[in-house]
Design brief:
Strand content: 25-35%
Distance between the termini: 32 Å
CATH topology of the largest domain: FAD/NAD(P)-binding domain
Radius of gyration: 21 Å
Order of helices and strands: EEHEHEHEHEHEEHEEEEEEEEEHEEEHE
Structural class: alpha+beta
Number of domains: 2
């Protein structure tokens, strides 16, 4: 562990006053942890709490099957957070009364064709080198696990430790837990800028010009993080919105078409206990565009239909657009900022739900103890600093 006493922790007063910008699962989770330890916490959000990426997500905890080359540190962070999820869900249930429905059936990454199989095996070879618990299973074994899969099937990767939670229940539970612990949540209260005085963050300035003083400011505004003023251009986290269109279908809860999370070419499908089937998601560089398009939804539905033909009989339940907070290297930005008293907790891209437990715990320890957990060390904003010229 690394101590950061000049910024946070023991050198600060025992119960710091903390302003958190952003009331998604990351901001709400941090608020819960800090308030439960006696900190005075206020959370500000430009909209309703939990209404951004936290509402739009699918809730997959896919640290293994999503592992890509060059993301070894991110995979390690995801696995650490994955291991914390059962205790986190249990603790949240006790604190809020809401069951986030942590489902442990596992995930199947399905290959429909020989080309799919070749591509998946290429990724699997790298994933195996990382020691991830993944295995290739035959078409017969794949169909035994999910009988409604398409007639032609090349097999699948079985990921027994990639689970899911209901992200919307997670956001609701975190809000209840945070408020029960004493945190104040101010919805529809945009933050204009972070106040910096003498090299230290000393509060936030709201859109109406009101300044709210704080000992620590946590920037957890997701895709909107870079729009918060008060920081120099190099101090603003390089986070942009990545648009995703999604929809849900209605299955019979007593006889669902699938029970595992399924990844297939061009789509993923996540079954919920209430019968909803989450189908997602497009990946579009279109800023904060909120339009649902025929092409986007057609692409998802066609890919889902090729994988599970029986979905054509299902009613459409809901359609929506979300904005993932994507950083320059698609990894989160978590840790102390260049100004004293400033903490970043943003840029989680597609892994916000997965990384919630480890992010929440790490930021709370940083603020309260001045301790920087090893798991988050590779993800500080300093990695984006331009290289120094040779002297």
């Amino acid at each position: 562990m690394n101590s950061v006493p000049t910024r946070f922790g023991p050198s600060s007063k025992s119960a710091p006053n903390v302003a958190i910008i952003g009331a998604g699962v990351i901001g709400l989770g941090i608020a819960w942890r800090l308030a439960a330890k006696g900190a005075a916490v206020t959370v500000f959000d430009r909209g309703a709490a939990g209404s951004g990426a936290s509402h739009a997500a699918a809730g997959m905890l896919a640290a293994c099957c999503e592992a890509e080359p060059g993301e070894d540190a991110l995979v390690a962070l995801g696995r650490e957070s994955q291991a914390r999820w059962p205790a986190f869900a249990t603790e949240l249930l006790k604190a809020s009364g809401i069951d986030v429905e942590l489902r442990t059936e596992g995930t199947l990454v399905v290959a429909l064709t020989a080309d799919d199989q070749a591509r998946i095996h290429h990724h699997l070879a790298h994933q195996k080198k990382l020691g991830l618990p993944l295995e290739w299973i035959s078409p017969a074994e794949t169909r035994r696990r999910e009988p409604h899969l398409a007639g032609k099937l090349a097999g699948a990767v079985w990921s027994p430790e990639d689970h899911q939670v209901d992200n919307r229940k997670l956001a609701a539970g975190l809000r209840i837990a945070a408020e029960a612990a004493g945190a104040t949540i101010r919805e529809h209260t945009p933050v204009k800028e972070i106040s910096i005085a003498g090299g230290r963050a000393d509060g936030v300035v709201l859109a109406d010009g009101t300044k709210v003083e704080a000992d620590v400011v946590v920037l957890a505004a997701g895709a909107w993080s870079r729009t918060i003023g008060g920081l120099t251009p190099d101090q603003r986290p390089p986070v942009r919105p990545i648009k995703g269109q999604m929809l849900s279908l209605k299955m019979d809860p007593a006889a669902p078409l699938m029970t595992h999370v399924i990844w297939a070419p061009g789509v993923y499908m996540v079954p919920r206990k209430d019968g909803r089937l989450i189908v997602g998601a497009t990946v579009e560089e279109k800023a904060f565009d909120t339009s649902l398009t025929a092409g986007g939804l057609l692409t998802l539905l066609e890919a889902a239909w090729r994988t599970i033909p029986a979905i054509e009989e299902l009613a459409i339940d809901e359609m929506w657009v979300g904005h993932r907070p994507g950083s320059r290297d698609d990894a989160p930005i978590v840790g102390p900022g260049p100004a004293q008293g400033l903490v970043y907790a943003t840029g989680h891209h597609r892994n916000g739900i997965l990384l919630a437990p480890v992010t929440v715990d790490a930021v709370a320890r940083l603020v309260l103890e001045g301790t920087l957990e090893p798991a988050i060390r590779p993800f500080g904003i300093e990695r984006f600093a331009p290289p120094r010229a040779a002297e």
